[in-house]
Amino acid sequence: MNAGQANDGAHPPDDRRENSDTPDQFSVRVLDAGDPLVLVVFGEVDYASSPLLKAALIAAINEGNRRAVIVDLSVCGYMDSAGLGVLVEASRVARDQQRTIVLACASAQVARTFSLTRLDRLFRIADTLEDARASLAGRRDSEE
Question: Is pLDDT of 144 > 80?
Answer without folding.
Answer: no
